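user: Please review this fold.
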Amino acid sequence: MSTVEAAKLRLERAIARLESATRARPAGRAAGPDQAELVRALEAAQTENAELQDAAEQAAAGLDRAISRLKAVLGD
C-alpha cells in the first residue's frame, strides 16, 4: 500500500469515527465546545481527504502516462 493510500485510509477511518461521535450525541443537546471542536476536526479531515484524493488521482494519471510511454518505447 502506498503512502498516499495508507494516509487516505487513516483519514477515512478518522472521519468515520468523528461522524459516529457526532451522531451519538443526545438529540436536542446544544452544541458545546466539544461539539464545535468535533465539527472543526471533521471539516479539516474532509478537506485533507479531498486534497489526498486529488494527489492520488494526479499520481495515478502520471503513472498511467509513464506506463503508456514505456509500452510505446517497448513496442507493446
User: Anything to note?
Assistant: The longest helix spans residues 33-74. The chain has a mean pLDDT of 84.
